[in-house]
Amino acid sequence: MAKKYSPIVKNIGYMWHRKYVNWNKSHLIGYSESGDEEMDFRYQAGIYVLYGKDYEIIYIGQAGKGENSGLFKRIKDHTQDEMFCMWERFSWYGFYSKSALKKDDYGEEFTFECDVNEIMNVIEALLIRVNLPKFNSNNSALV
Fold first, then answer.
1. 66 φ/ψ angles, rounded to the nearest 5 degrees
2. For residue 125, what are the CA distances in angstroms to 8, 31, 140?
3. Where are the domains of the chain?
4. Residue 125: CB partners within 8 Å, gap ≥ 6?
5. What DSSP state is assigned to residue 62?
6. Is the backbone of residue 96 left (phi > 0), alpha (psi -120 to 50) or beta?
7. Do 97 and 65 touch, CB atoms closer than 8 A?
8. What's the gap between Cα 122 and its chain centre?
9. Closest CA to 18 of 98, 80, 96
10. Are the C-beta atoms of residues 91 and 111 closer than 8 Å to each other?
11. Distance between CA atoms of residues 129 and 85, nearest Å
């Protein structure tokens, strides 16, 4: 029997428009998959992508864990740097689980237990979702 692994990417924010984020509040509010639970993703660690007006990729970066390097801080920095005028939407792919986000449990390091096929599937799905190549079908291997 194949071993069941926990997904690497725990939650996703896809094509959020920056004008709907209150950059002065220090929160990055979204909703759970079911849409019934409000979540704060400000300290999420993961990969983020900035998109220009025509959905072209402007920048890809990573956000570390915690208050000074989490997702909110890293993306907010781009509202104040030389790229400010170039992007209007962002997507992000987070590694902390919903329960860790709810408990503000960002201090513990964690490791992933997965095989090479899972890693390839996640990287492929992430690249497809970020780049939207016209000959690839929708890939749901991220979560």
1. 90, -175
2. 12, 22, 7
3. 11-112
4. 139, 140, 141, 142
5. E
6. beta
7. no
8. 13
9. 80
10. no
11. 23
Residue 134's φ and ψ, nearest 5 degrees, are -70, -20
Measure CA 72 to chain center.
10
Instruction: Report whether 65 contacts 106 (CB < 8 A).
Output: yes
How many angstroms separate the Cα of 129 from the Cα of each of 26, 40, 57, 108?
Answer: 27, 23, 12, 29
**What would the two tokens of residue 64 be?**
């570390």
Instruction: Give the separation between CA 17 and CA 50, rounded to whole angstroms.
Output: 10
Q: Is the pLDDT of residue 7 over 80?
A: no
pLDDT tens by residue, 12-70: 888 999 999 999 888 888 876 666 678 888 888 889 999 999 889 999 998 987 677 88
Judge whether 71 and 12 are in contact, CB under 8 Å: no
Q: How far apart are CA 49 and CA 61, in angstroms?
A: 6
Q: What is the dihedral of CA 128, 129, 130, 135, to 10 degrees?
A: 40
The token pair that represents 103 in the structure block: 């408990």
pLDDT over 90 (residue 74): yes
Q: Where are the alpha helices (DSSP H) in 29-132?
A: 71-77, 98-102, 116-131
